[in-house]
Each structure stands twice: as structure tokens, then as C-alpha cells.
Amino acid sequence: MVAFHQAKPNCWFVVLVALVSAAPAPQITSIVTASPDACAQISPATASFLAQNPSATPTIAASLAHDCLQSVPNKPEPAKKLVNSLQAFVQWQSTLAWLKNPPSSYTLPATDIVGRLSNISATSASGRFASEYDFQLAIFETFTSAHDGHFAFRPDIFKAFGFRNALASDIVSVSSDGKAVPKLYHRADLNSTTTASAITKINGRDAAAFIEELNLRFSSFQDPDSQWNSMFQTYATPGTALTVAASLAFQGKSVTLTYENGQERTEESFAVLRAGVDFAGIQSGEDFYNRFCNPDAASAPTTTVVTSTTATARSTSTVVATLSPTIRGYPSPIIRDSGSDSTSGYFLNGTGYEDVAVLAVSSFSNGANVGTLEYLTNFQSTVEGFLSQSKIAGKRRLIVDLTANGGGFVVAGYELFAQLFPDVEMFQANNLRLADSLVNIARIVDSLPANFNVSTPAQLLAVQALSSSAIISNIIPGGVFRPEGSQFNSVEDILAPVSLQGDLFTAYQATPLNETSAEFNLTGTGTRSNPPPAVFAPENVVLLTDGTCGSTCTLFSYLMILGLNIKTTAVGGRPIAGPMQSIAGVEGAQVFELGDISNVASAVIELGPEVRKAELQNGELGILAEGYAIARATDPRSPGAVNGKNQFASMDAQTPLQFLMQPANCRFFYTAEMLTRPELVWQRVVDATWTDPEAMCVAGSRIVTNESQALDPLFRLSSEPPAVNAESGASGLTRAISLTNMLVLLATVLFSFC
């Protein structure tokens, strides 16, 4: 059976990154003296607002919200406990060693996650944080400094407010002709009959430099151009706004914009109270702490945060609303999905474009009203129908539009590749960091006897937790194989350490794709074992990206780029000439949610040897099982995650793809018209790829397609033939867990953290 893991939907789309290169102590430049009664003013200010605007979301002045946050005291003992808990979870982050000492191909600053957390704890213990807000902001910035959409933790100080500024909310980045470097405009000005004046400064700083610096602090994308694109509205990202316009963190009391024509405008910022937040009875920062930051307080609320965790928890559902013939922002399709609003097909019109088909895939995940199996089967049939119609219509060239695709179900990415090129083998090579707790979990699960007798309700819950976990199949034989297809004969084969970058990892592994299921079969397996031949030749296919392609999107894209030399064209990026990365979202292979890690830790302590219970409870597993950090999250139901698995290219077994550069073959900028007319973008892709690249690509951006490179010999670990449903070396319980993982969802979260 195929495990329906999600690798991310621009999972964990985190914000807030720090500019340091190692692990310095947080810089406390001054102690902020906040109004001691600022929090007491929130409730009457909210009541006054609602009296005048009864149906609106309550807002207050941004400066008042910030003063309230700065009055919340930092408490050293709970702070220490929070950091200790986070340190245990952070050990599962697969990229720690490369983040601390990245290769030259990585374009962002180094960061020592473990060291930074230790310094935050020490700073709190010495009383050098002005407030709980400063303490938690330092934690948040530490997570985001990884620039990894799978690595995130949003602590509880952020339950109350989001910061906004209306003046900066509609800024877009557009070029006059697609080659000239873009300028910044208000989108409304571009739609008016008057001549728009470009924005040259933000808060007195050069506008582009200001945005880039904020991106470096606040964006989870791992490349400056993808960070830039993630800030601006396009047809694929209609709700996007600059960090200074929508942020989790305070960005100042106002925003001032300066224009090319010399005009200057200033507008006050405001704070939005998050859904479910109640300030009644809060008279001080101490009250705020007890209401929002004390998990033991009976009155502590849980704010409602809509995430894909809640969406993917539904195994079945029905789309009730009438299906629109089009997807928002896109033209009328020849075919579209049945409710996820993420997959659709088009045929281009006009001279020179008659033979071009476009498959737009903005996500590999289901919508809130679509169940997992419903999404996967519909995605499969939508792609199949698109290819069939393309063949009938005689289409010869294909654009796969991946703009704003943050990922989703891994199997969906493999499914798309399998339908496009059914005769091409899909390479996989991943590994996991050997955290002590992961090693303990693997060995304890492996030691459970085949005839294990569940004798207590607690043991039954523990077995259920292991059976529903997305983690377990990665560390037992039968759940994963070696990259070349041979089986692991024991857990110790999987744990046999591979040393990279001064750290230890599991053996390289791959998820079996040839298993069958009554519910869903990947194209090329089971009931779909004889797929039709490819409709498009590799040289007639191009990937369109804006650099934000992440997680499952990267798995699919690298199969295309590295395996078949598929061309890529990138759109947008910073206002400079030159090349741009095509793939620059998170490039990890799988996300592990903190809640899943905690549940598995609790389960193995419960099921483990009685003689080891005290040892396990008092060690890293016990800290994970307690899950104090989860209780201190903005939403404990979706507290955060780590990147559990590195992804490697076939020619490089030393450096995860997260730290390598993959430039596009061509780049052009958005024009104003392209923001709302994707067909103009697609026509430009055709011209830039096949018609006249020299005339259509940004100066210095044309890169020759990389030829396929030889397989790294480190991946050739065995000459054994591929095995199907191998069970050698696994206990009865671990075999059962492996086979029930077919419906496991690695839930991931798309947060703009505003």
C-alpha cells in the first residue's frame, strides 16, 4: 500500500528569521518601558470598536497591542522548561548540521539552532529579556532562521494579535515589459486611469532593500528571490501582502511610503484580535500571561487556527457547494478538479501557441471540503483526462505551472510524474537524523513480540498511536527500502549510521511505490499497471515556477529536472537582472508534526520494557512525551513541526537538496497585465522557452540545461533485487503498523503567520 504522506503544503509557511551566522545571545539593546495598564485598555477599546462596528473583526492601535505585549513578564522557570522541551523536538530536525555550516551553494546566513535556543534560555535565566514577548519572539526567529517551511513553532504569546497596515497591503512588483527590472506600485493605482507613481522608499529606506531585509528576517523560503515573490499578489497568490502590511510581529506604529513623484503618505498600523480571544478581566501583563501563556490556567483559551491539520484529519467528505467552472484567478479550463481548486488544464490560443497545453497545479493537497482519497483519486483522474484531451487535440508542447505550489501529498507528486512519463523510474534517496529518541523508538518498536498482547486501555491507545503515526514506517523494514530497491533486513540495517557533515543519519532510504491497495493505486501499479504512453516528449515540456515550489513540489520537479533534463522558466524575483532559482521552497522529503513525535514517544514508553520505563521517562523520550512545548503553542492542535527527512539528488549523496542551487533556464518578470491574466504568463513561457529566448529572458538569466549526471556510488549499497512487501526482520506488530500506514497523513500547515 502507498503511504499518503504529506511533505508540506508551503508547509509550515513560516515567518521571522534572524540575521546571525552562528549562535549569539539575543541582542537586548534596551529595556522597553511599556505602559503598565496597556493590557487593561484592550477590552474597553474593543468594546468601543464593536459598538460602532458590530459585525467587524475587532481592531486596536498597533502601538497599544505592542505595549500590552511588552508588559507581559518573562518567567525564567517556565521559559527554561519551554526551551528544554523544544530542544528535544529540535533533535529531529534533519538539517541541523548543514544549517550550522552550510555549503557555498546556500545563499542565506548560517544558523546554529541548538546553540541559539541554549542562549535564549540563558538570557531568560539572567533576567535580560524585557518581556515574554521578546523571549518568545527570539524563539520564533530561531525556528525561522532555518528558512525551512517544514520547521516551525509558534508560541503562545502570539495567540492574541496580528498586526496590519492597509496602506502597504496592495503593493505589487511589476516590470514594464517583462525584461526591465520591476518597480513597486499600489495595485489599485495600476487599475486606475491615472498614471501610477512607483514606490521608492518604505519608512525612509530604499523600498527594495527594506523588503529584502524584512524577508531575511521574516520569510521561511530559502532563497532571496523566492522570498521576494512570496510577498506579492499574483493570479496564483491573490491574498498575499508584504510583511510590513500583515505580520505576526509588531512592525512599528505606522508605515510611510515615498513615491517617484515626490509624494509621501503615512498610515497608522493596527492590530487585529484573533478569533476567540477575550480580554475581559485582563488588567495587566501578568493577567495576559495567565490567560494566554499558562497552560495550567483553567481559563487559558485555545484560539481557532484553520490549518490543513484539521482538513487532512477528514478521511471522507463531500463537497456541498456548487462547483465553479473556473478556479479563482485562472481562465476557463478544459478540465479541472472537483473541489480542491488546485489542478486544472488549458489549451492556449493564438498564432504560435496552437499546440500548447498548460497543466496548472497550485498544490498537491486537498481542500478543506475534500477528503484524502477523494482528492487523490480525483487528482489522478483530472491529470489522466487532461493528458487524454491533449492527445486528442494534437497538443505537442506542455507547460506545467507550479507557481505558488507549496506541496502536499507525496504520492500526488509521484502520480503526476508517473502519468507524464510512465516508463521512467522515479529515484528517491532520503535519510533521518539519528536523534537519541528516534533510535530508542525504533529499537523498542522492533523489540515488541509478534504475539504482543494488549492488556490495558493505555497499551491499546499506545498501539493505536504507533499505527496512525507517519514516523514509524520510516524506521522499520518493509516500510522503506534502499534507494536501488533492495530490502532492509532489520531495524539495525536502517539505523546503521551514515556520517555526513559531522552528524549521524539513518541509511539512505526510499518509500516503496509498487505496493497496491483496494483504495488507490499509483499509476504503473496494481489496477493501473498498464498506463498509456507519454503524450509529451521531455524536450517539449517546461516547468513554470516562481521559486516558491516546496516539499512535494520539489520532489516532482527534481524528478523532471534531474532525471529528464526538463527545462524550467522562473517568473518574478528581486528587481535585479541575472539568473533565479527555479526550486527554492523547502526541499525536505517529509514533515513530522510535533504532536506525532510526542504521541509516538508516549506510546513506546508505555509499550517498552518495564525495567527501562524510569530511564526512558527521565530522558529525551520523557520530555517529548510530556510535550510541554505543544501546550505552549498558539494552537496546541497544530503546534509546529520539524523536517524529518532529507532529500538527496541522485548525483550527490553528501548534501541535501535544501542546500543546493537549482537555477532556472530562463527568467522573466511579471508585467501588470500578467498579475491577473495567467494566459499572458503562459504565452511568455512559450516564447522564452522555444520561440525567442534571447528576446524574452532577463539579461544574464539564461542557463543551459544540466545534463543528467551519474548516480552517486554511495547510493549503490546492495545488489539484491527489488523486494515487494518485504517483511523480513520485522515483528508482527511492526508489520501491522507498516501496512496500516496507507492512510497515515503527515499533516502540514500553511501559515503566513500574520
TrEMBL record:
InterPro entries: ClpP/crotonase-like_dom_sf, PDZ_CPAF-rel, S41A_metabolite_peptidase. The keyword Membrane does not apply. Residues 167-275 form the CPAF-like PDZ domain. It comes from the Eukaryota. Keywords: Signal. SUPFAM superfamilies: ClpP/crotonase (SSF52096). The keyword Nucleotide-binding does not apply. Residues 1-22 form the signal peptide. This is CPAF-like PDZ domain-containing protein. It comes from Neoarthrinium moseri.
